[in-house]
Amino acid sequence: MSKAELKRIEEEFDPEARFRPLPPVLSWLAGGLLFALACYHYYTSGFGIPRATNHMGVHLAFTLALIFLSFGAFSRPSPLPVPRLLGLPLTDWALGIAGAAAALYVPMVFNDLAFRVGNPLPIDVIMGTILIVVLLEATRRAMGWPLPVIAMLFMAYAYFGQSMPGILVHPGTDWRGIVNHLYLTSQGIYGTALMVISTYVFHFVLFGVLATRIGLGQLFIDLASALAGRFAGGPAKVSVLSSAMLGSISGSSIANTVTTGAMTIPAMIRIGYPRHFAAAVEAAASTGGQITPPVMGAVAFLMIEYLGVPLTTILTAALVPAFMHFFGVLLQVHLEARRRGLRGLTKAELPDAWRVFREGWMTTLPLVLLVIILLSGRTPYAAAFWGISACLLVLIVQNGWRHGPAQAIPKSARDIWDGFVIGARYSLAVTAAAALVGVIIGVVTLTGVGFKIAFMVTSVASGWAQSVHAALTFLPFELFSLPTLTLLFTLVMTAVVCILMGCGIPTTANYLIMVAVAAPILGMLGVEPLVAHFFVFYYGVLADVTPPVALAAYAAAGIANGNAFKAGNTAFRLSMGKVLVPFVFVFSPSLLLVVDGFTWTSFALATGGAMLGIWALSAAFADWLFGPLYALERAVLALAAMLLVAPDLYATAAGLVLIAPIVLRQVLAPKAHVIDTRH
After folding, report:
1. Residue 640: closest CA among 615, 670, 607
2. Which residue ranges does the record assign to the TRAP C4-dicarboxylate transport system permease DctM subunit domain (predicted)?
């Protein structure tokens, strides 16, 4: 597909990429502001972050002004005549300027802020109201309605607390008190979420854009093709490996889907995969980018602030669960290829791995440098500074080789301008979302609603657990204890809420809300904070491939020209590893490597059982193990998978006993014929 077609698909399914066309003067103005924002962050990452409130104020002011330049109020131009200045509606100028002024107001009065908190002046309330209103509209433009609606409902809850039913009732707060808490304290808009976005995430978004621009993404795709393309169903395995590697630096499901899917999806279709399956493979693999170190989207950096642990702890904890996700997708594409008798790529269709690396090795230097600095214990933004600097150096050297010394500087300057502008533009929506999530978190801390919801959920889960436990008393042994069942039902409800919320809002915002609301629920049941945060994060990511709003799968279906709903359902099925593994590491935290009480025995049991369970469930879904399966065998494999993933020695043994006859029959049976896909 052409670049224009791919851009259209990305904009169709990713509201964060729907930038409106601007006339030349405004285009240069927006570009200049974006470049200035990127330069500011590049400089501060290397030479020191200013005072937190000042830093967040500058970042938010630039962001709000740029959102009203970059995003239109509606997807289609208004048929009514609208007063304009330089081609932009006057309302957009007013909102952008008002939002920037309100964002900078708090830093301007910072020295006096301690005397204003709890007793705001009328001007404070006015400026806070302006910022909240502008922030709601900015987020609506950049991301759609769901997150602003949730924020407004939370503010309504804070205001009408006395009218709430049952346990949700609280004294209520007037508008002055709400603005005071959300605008003037560190518990609201200028809270942890905005601080992390402006201090860490922006720099890694910029690094990812520049790393892709120097060719690192293409190197990953070529290496994956050279390494995995020759095996059965080769293009699908290339899709999984390349999406894992590219996702580790991009952290965006839809952008990853479009970038790698443009090459891998047509190749999968060409060798015989159905269109919806090819789209599902790319979508399932691309969503893994958000859980793959070292970048992991924005969530890794949010975790270090919320949990107070080093980034290396988060990255280490993410290793095994990320592997499990890609292991599950790879298994299913392999079994599907065997079932359909699909070939790999021929030698003529494959790049030479040594030649690919010899020509592109330089593009790996920024990533290697970034990882080394991260592991050394330096701050993430220092690692990003040196990673970005290395990207710029590689860019200049590449242009010198390609265009000669005379053209190296002008060409490099243009590439740097484009990279900085694109990187800053991709940060706009996530910044607006983080600031608005600060409103939601502020209401939670103001009203204490998080603990009330936690009490409600655990009460329901406890009631269900007691009913199930009583129903199982006929057994001569206790299959599940009451606390285990309570935790299990709580996890199921939490997972469902994470997926439902993720259908309307992006992963980062979903994670922030669920940390404020759901993490206390798991904490009440004794789940470690690190484990609870990973659980809600994984199920938030899963929303990108969960119908009815599986945006990554729908974008892939657009490239494949396949059925979008079937692609979403299949992508969810391919992501079974991501569905099962969070339950495993809740009941066996050793899977995350860095939790208290880690033992190699429990790690081996949890990891081995999870891999066997994913294998059994993949075979049940694919209707193929070493050959075709009977319907009863598929049901037994699915049941065995549930037992195998349970981090318990007896459950694992029971699962092995169930699958042993099936494996034996398949091994001893005559070689089965593959499905003839022509009929």
Report:
1. 615
2. 131-594
